[in-house]
From TrEMBL:
Protein name: DUF2256 domain-containing protein
Top-level taxon: Bacteria
Pfam families: DUF2256 (PF10013)
InterPro entries referenced in this protein's UniProt entry, alphabetically: UCP037205 (IPR017136)
Length: 51
């Protein structure tokens, strides 16, 4: 069995839409590098970035 991790030891990111921090989830394990939004709602209401 794999070692257990504490929730505080999991990696986190800042949501590109709402700006709030969110933690790693098992369903994002394969694609963590490409995850940008904390939820489907934030994904739908993307904030336009000016370049």
């Amino acid at each position: 069995m794999p070692k257990m991790r504490k929730k505080g030891d999991l990696p986190s990111k800042i949501c590109a839409s709402c700006g709030l921090p969110f933690n790693w989830r098992k369903k994002w394990a394969r694609d963590w590098d490409n995850v940008r939004y904390c939820s489907d709602r934030c994904k739908r209401t993307k904030v336009e970035t000016k370049s």
